[in-house]
């Protein structure tokens, strides 16, 4: 039984439509079971950390495909799905990406392009211009945002809420990787126009986030950071 199966007792919809619609009847869980699942999912996500120390162990392409399939379920402005995930396993191409990213980051960190307040904010993460993990990981996946999408008739379709849509898709991608025991980092080399050139993307796409993907290194460490408490993440106007 899926959410789209019509049960025998389901009433016919009284609505009329100009486009095709389907019945949607997801299972209604009893509340104890719903809370149990919510807690389990929350605890699972709490165990995720961004990783900068990766293992070179291989990751099958099938796992990248599963994560992108999950990302591809994201809601999007006008259902335009304005994302493209480009997966790079080729070591030579990964090395080119590393070189280009480090060139920009050297200007940021050593050349003084990063404003002081920004540097201070990054202090606890101990980031620097060394992006050697881009050579270590089996995959680099770059999410591109499609500002517009070329249509089969040659015209360009403008897309709406592109940042929101691609951001949500990337969140689902991260969660799917984590579910499979893989680690990643939301790396945003700055500026990252070099990815357009190296990965030969059309000008209608903008590099959005670069994800190194792999298993954490056996000696991986992460900064000792705390998540803000629920009381600061949630405010109620309870009824
Ligand atoms: N792009 C730089 C700097 C950087 C910026 C933020 I905001 C971070 O959360 C981490 C790093 C870099 O990749 O090092």
What would a concise description of this structure say?
The protein has 239 residues and is α+β, with helices and mostly antiparallel strands. The protein contains eight helices and six strands; from the N terminus they run ααβαααβββαβαβα. The chain has a domain of 166 residues: NADH Oxidase (3-Layer(aba) Sandwich).
Give a structural overview.
This protein is α+β, with helices and mostly antiparallel strands. It has a domain at about 50-215: NADH Oxidase (3-Layer(aba) Sandwich). About 35% of the residues lie in helices and about 15% in strands. It contains 8 helices and 6 strands. It has helices at about 30-45, 60-70, 90-110, 115-120, 135, 160-180, 195-200, 230-235, and strands at about 85-90, 140-145, 150, 155-160, 185, 205-215. The strands form 2 sheets. It has a 4-stranded antiparallel β-sheet with strand order 1-2-6-5. A two-stranded antiparallel ribbon has the order 3-4. The longest helix is centred in the middle third of the chain and has 19 residues, at about 90-110. It starts with about 30 loop residues before the first helix and ends in a 6-residue tail after the last helix. The structure holds 3-iodo-tyrosine. 3-iodo-tyrosine (IYR) binds near residues 125 and 189. Keywords: Flavoprotein, FMN, Oxidoreductase. This is Nitroreductase. GO terms for molecular function: oxidoreductase activity.
For the termini, the CA-CA separation is: 34 Å
Total helices: the number is: 8
Order of helices and strands: HHEHHHEEEHEHEH
Q: What is the CATH superfamily of the domain at 50-215?
A: NADH Oxidase
* Low-confidence region ranges: none
β content, as a range? 5-15%
CATH class of the domain at 50-215: Alpha Beta
Structural class: alpha+beta
Q: How confident is the prediction overall: mean pLDDT? A: 96
Query: Would you identify the CATH architecture of the domain at 50-215?
Result: 3-Layer(aba) Sandwich
GO molecular function: oxidoreductase activity
Region (Disordered): 1-24
Domain Nitroreductase: 46-215
InterPro entries: Nitroreductase (IPR029479), Nitroreductase-like (IPR000415), Nitroreductase/BluB (IPR050627)
């Amino acid at each position: 039984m899926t959410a789209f199966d019509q049960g025998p007792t389901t009433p016919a919809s009284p609505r009329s439509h100009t486009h095709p619609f389907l019945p949607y009847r997801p299972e209604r869980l009893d509340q104890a079971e719903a809370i149990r699942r919510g807690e389990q999912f929350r605890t699972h996500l709490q165990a995720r950390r961004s990783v900068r120390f990766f293992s070179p162990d291989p990751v099958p392409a099938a796992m990248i495909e599963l994560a992108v399939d999950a990302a591809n379920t994201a809601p999007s402005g006008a259902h335009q799905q304005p994302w493209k995930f480009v997966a790079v396993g080729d070591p030579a191409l990964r090395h080119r990406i590393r070189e280009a990213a480090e060139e920009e980051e050297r200007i940021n960190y050593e050349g003084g392009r990063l404003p002081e307040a920004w540097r201070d904010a990054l202090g606890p993460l101990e980031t620097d211009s060394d992006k050697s993990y881009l050579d270590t990981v089996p995959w680099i996946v770059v999410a591109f945002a499609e500002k517009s999408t070329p249509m089969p008739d040659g015209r360009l379709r403008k897309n709406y809420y592109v940042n929101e849509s691609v951001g949500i898709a990337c969140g689902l991608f991260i969660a799917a990787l984590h579910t499979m025991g893989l680690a990643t980092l939301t790396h945003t080399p700055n500026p990252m126009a070099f990815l357009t050139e190296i990965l030969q993307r059309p000008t209608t796409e903008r590099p959005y986030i670069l994800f190194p993907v792999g298993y954490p290194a056996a000696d991986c460490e992460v900064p000792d950071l705390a998540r803000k408490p629920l009381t600061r993440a949630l405010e109620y106007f309870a009824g």
